């Protein structure tokens, strides 16, 4: 029950979103018990964003929302991996990528809460 | 002071959003002390989403954000109701709907925090 | 490591976003230790929103996400200031502005978590 939501200034193509989908689906396994089997993704390209008072063509804000919790170490690994993916595939400078985590206590799927 | 934010792959019409507004405005009463009188809604249709590695035409990610807390039982009732509404009105398969809850401690309205 | 995300029904011009960027960059200093140097902003205009069962042309939902915590008093000051800015610059009625705060424990930048 994780969901990774990506907002970026980059104008994303369908091919890029498909590729990120595959990479993120593998990366999420860095959190114990999580896999692509329960992973939802949302992508928003061409976003209007600023960082440090500047508007740059390469920027991303990624929110990882998960049911339950994981360790600091696991979150660190995932930050490293997601940043690397966005750097490689979208040419976004890692210094312009924020990745934040939200641990969720109440999460519903298929009409019922876990 | 709740806000329900809906992202879906479905391309929403104004009529559908108006209808969801009415239904969600009633459903929120399942959380004690909450009503349409303080409910904000945001709708985003035509979103780029994936679930379980697939891109399907019917998918939704719903975030219920509320000032304060409610019980597990009340959240479950609301999940059931919101899922039913999205299934009936937008023909989204319940197995492709995530609904997550965020309990908020600091919430401002009209220039002041509650 | 704060991020302020603004959704509004107002159709934002680039000039308005640039202006809000400057004002928000100053306002964030109301939270101790925060400044424009680490502030990310996202703006979404022309959003589909409802409040109290109505669709109005002037409405905003603002999410302030920050690494760590601040005091109730500081959040109140920031709510007051952000509301004033949106009222002055976008002519949004303060009674149609929600501002909510999320205190984040795990936040990554540049490939590593803080």
TrEMBL record, chains A, B, C:
Keywords (A to Z) from UniProt: Cytokine, Isomerase, Secreted
Catalytic activity: 3-phenylpyruvate = enol-phenylpyruvate; L-dopachrome = 5,6-dihydroxyindole-2-carboxylate
Single GO term (MF): cytokine activity
Pfam families assigned: MIF (PF01187)
Primary localisation category: secreted
SUPFAM superfamilies recorded: Tautomerase/MIF
A single GO cellular-component term on record: extracellular space
Coiled-coil regions, chain positions: none
Enzyme class: isomerase
Record flagged with keyword Isomerase: yes
EC number of this enzyme: 5.3.2.1, 5.3.3.12
Compartment(s) of residence: Secreted
Family annotation (InterPro entries): Macrophage_inhib_fac, Tautomerase/MIF_sf
Name of this protein: L-dopachrome isomerase
Record organism: Ethanoligenens harbinense (strain DSM 18485 / JCM 12961 / CGMCC 1.5033 / YUAN-3)
